[in-house]
């Protein structure tokens, strides 16, 4: 029955077309509706991303992209193989989500990164999909490619429709809110911001490592509702132990079994955290105010240095502005994906 709420979200998302044209609902309702349905649909896309890649069983794979941050054309292996197999190790691609943002000077971080996401949305993803070199040209791969392109065209149609209805400001507002809400949601279910200097990856139990390095979160406390509000990440420890379950509802059903197995083997089961208060706000503060830096082991290198002078200096480095402008250009050509 998972498809019932999923298709409701999809229909609600589509309601933006008549709502924009006829001005059916107030601006804030439309923006909130778009942000919530996009976040919920990303959950559907996420679980389809883990499914068999034949264009049929994973038909909603492309919904992963609806919050403007996902990139289904690369995530079917980037997420499934690199994030899930190498969780929280230096090889985990999810760890790098904020790498580029953190290289930007603090004052310009939000506008420059938002522009990059717009470029990727506008043309970058389509160029990337069309340039993708498939090793074979099987029917399933052509079907998958067509699905990704069709979905990208629907997303672009929403933008052009909003411009046609002279409501591009509403589209821009929902784009901005959706991008930034989901950026912090993506990293909220792991402790990426914690620097573990002495972490060793030798002689570990994979299952125990997944339980210890993924976080469960809640918003309302009602699991079936939180599943949609959290982009499917609320029952995250079960998802990391059993990544090939076909939907987030299966994770909710399996939770007591996974929890009791952990108790049986003496693995600590940390309490779920409040997604908004314990994770979203602290992460937003951290990633928007952290000094401009480049990733390094064991700790990142600050480009401007520490303190007030470091803050001034990081805003005077022309090299970083040049890189940001090139990244914006690269986002339109698909080079940043
Ligand atoms: Zn996953």
Sum this structure up briefly:
With 337 residues, the protein is mostly helical.
Topology:
Layout: H1 3-14, H2 16-22, H3 27-49, H4 72-85, H5 99-103, H6 109-131, H7 139-164, H8 168-188, H9 206-212, E1 217-218, H10 223-229, H11 236-241, H12 248-264, E2 273-274, H13 275-289, E3 293-294, E4 301-302, H14 307-314, H15 318-333
The structure holds zinc ion.
Task: Please explain how this structure is put together.
This protein has 337 residues and is mostly helical. It contains 15 helices and 4 strands. The strands form 2 sheets. A two-stranded parallel sheet has the order 1-2. A two-stranded antiparallel sheet has the order 3-4. Helix 3 (27-49) packs across helix 8 (168-188) and helix 7 packs across helix 8. The protein starts with a helix and ends with a helix. The structure holds zinc ion. Zinc ion binds at residues 46, 50, 79, 84, 239, 243. Keywords: Membrane, Transmembrane, Transmembrane helix. The chain crosses the membrane at residues 20-44, 145-162.
């Amino acid at each position: 029955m998972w498809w019932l709420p999923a298709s409701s979200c999809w229909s609600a998302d589509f309601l933006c077309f008549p709502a924009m044209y006829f001005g059916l609902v107030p601006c804030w309702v439309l923006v909130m509706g778009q942000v919530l349905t996009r976040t919920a649909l990303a959950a559907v896309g996420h679980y389809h991303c883990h499914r068999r890649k034949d264009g049929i069983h994973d038909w909603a794979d492309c919904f992963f992209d609806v919050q403007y941050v996902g990139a289904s054309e690369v995530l079917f292996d980037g997420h499934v193989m690199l994030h899930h197999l190498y969780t929280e190790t230096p090889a985990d691609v999810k760890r790098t989500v904020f790498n580029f943002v953190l290289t930007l000077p603090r004052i310009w971080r939000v506008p420059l990164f938002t522009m990059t996401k717009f470029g990727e949305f506008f043309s970058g993803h389509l160029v990337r999909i069309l340039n993708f070199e498939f090793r074979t040209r099987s029917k399933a791969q052509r079907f998958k490619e067509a699905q990704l392109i069709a979905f990208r065209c629907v997303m672009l149609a929403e933008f052009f429709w909003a411009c046609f209805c002279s409501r591009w400001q509403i589209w821009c507002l929902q784009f901005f809110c959706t991008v930034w809400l989901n950026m912090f949601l993506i990293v909220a279910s792991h402790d990426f911001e914690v620097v573990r200097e002495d972490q060793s990856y030798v002689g570990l139990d994979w299952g125990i490592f997944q339980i210890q390095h993924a976080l469960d979160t809640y918003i309302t406390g009602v699991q079936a509702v939180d599943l949609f509000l959290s982009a499917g990440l609320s029952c995250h420890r079960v998802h990391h132990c059993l990544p090939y379950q076909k939907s987030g509802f299966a994770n909710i059903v399996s939770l007591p079994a996974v929890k009791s197995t952990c108790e049986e083997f003496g693995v600590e089961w940390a309490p779920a955290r409040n997604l908004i208060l314990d994770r979203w706000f602290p992460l937003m503060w951290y990633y928007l105010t952290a000094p401009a830096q480049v990733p390094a082991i064991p700790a990142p290198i600050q480009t401007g240095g520490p303190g007030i002078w470091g803050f001034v200096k990081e805003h005077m480095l022309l090299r970083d502005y040049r890189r940001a402008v090139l990244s914006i250009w690269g986002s339109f050509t698909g080079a940043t994906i």
